[in-house]
Amino acid sequence: MSIGRTFLVSASTLMSGTLFAQAITFALSLLLTRLYDPGEFGRYSIFVGVAGVLGAMSTGALDRIVLLGRTRSEARRAATTVFLLTVGLAGVVALVGGLLWSLGLDRSLPLQGVDLAILAPLFMIGFAAAQVFTYSCLREGRVRTLAALKVGQSATMGLVQLALSWFHSLPGLILGSIAGWIVLAASGMRWRLAQGFLLRDLRPVAVGALIRRHWRYPRYVLPNEILDGLSNQAPVFLVGTFVTLSAAGQYGLAIMVLSAPSALVGQAVGQAFLQHMGPHENDPRTLEQAVWRIWLGLAGAGLIPFGVLLIFGPELFSFGFGGRWLQAGIIAQHIAPLLLLRFTSSPTSTLYWKLKMQREQWWFSLAAACYRPLCYGLTVFGFSLNFVIVLHVAIESLAIILFNVFTLRRLRDLQRVAA
Description:
The chain is mainly α. It contains 16 helices and no strands. It is globular, with a radius of gyration of 21 Å.
């Protein structure tokens, strides 16, 4: 089967599962926004952002080796190393969070002590194990299994959040999210245990050898992920700290409704592209043609939904989620153009891996880590949240365009060398 046809089959399977999963999440959110207030959504949005960055950090970016490793034994050792690193860092986070909680220092943060000491470590372990499972499925071609379990993850998360909404003393949104990750995490642990030789791979010599061989991932990819995660989560964290948790909830809901479906569909396309571009990594002309086709296809797919939100965002949010979520609709209206660009450009980061452009990606991530906090930090000086969002959209749209132009230039340079 050709790369184009195989890619389309894998991508369409992952996208179908992802879209179905997001349809479940969206349908349940229509109820959840009437059962939880914006302040509770604000706490949830900040928690998921902070715990997600810690979870990505804990893998050491070595989870990719589960997919990209040359042999099954190397993928197996990578999975073991990821679990060890994650449990170790989760323990450190639990100790630091418990210390802040006991000293009462958590009161100056938009999160509570229990979030840092107990819930964040659980989220980290579930997140890392889920990453192992995702890459193991892609490695072995079990795309349908991955798609089905993504649906199960969304259903579990939403139903637990719905059930816990009756217990207002519990952080139901956060607990539901952790329950959803456990669905994928259990599958990841099951895959790893099925490979055998667990004790052999736990030896420090084996772990050290793996890290030395793939040092580029923790050295280049990991800092990029941490920077990108921190800069992506800085807006909601700063809004929750310097404005209100309610405003953070409005912002978080807008981001969830717009970016979660587009990011997951884009991620599915990127993962499938990564899986099937290997045989053509030394053919830059074929890669450039494939990227252009994907960019144009994603732009066409996203134009109508993002265009509707750009025009009717406030009305749609008020009707669907309730009148108290009008501000979220206004925020969605402002950020729709930016998220359309992100959606269209989702394969670009995959090319950075294959073209070994991690160092260049670092500079783009560093720039984003600077301008995003600076933009939202303007709320401290009395600038309105709407003005800050528009400024952020303008700057980041320009950065994404430059990001894509830079990648195309590298592909064309490689074509000239090959010629």
